[in-house]
Amino acid sequence: MKLSARLILLLTFSVSVVMVAPSLITLRQREAALPDAARDEARVHAVTLQIALEEDYLTGRSLDAQRLINRLMENTRVYSAALFDAAGEIFAISNSSPPRSSGI
Q1: What are the residue boundaries of the structural domains of the chain, listed by start?
Q2: What pTM value is reported for the model?
């Protein structure tokens, strides 16, 4: 094998190693950030749902609020949704049914 071929192979290997190391570090950082991002996203959804339901109940549209809760059941990953009053008692609940298999 010629010297130029050896140098090209050595250079290719060196560049590959140099590129893989930062890529692995970046992947680890993203992996560590995912749980926080998922928790923040769930919190945003919960607050949005809270605002929508509070608006429905404050304006006397409790049937709309119940319909919204029942529509949550269209998502196969949601088992049930319940609203609690200030005393911690269940105020409204989505259609109760046994847990569904998500197929995962």
Answers
A1: 3-93
A2: 0.54
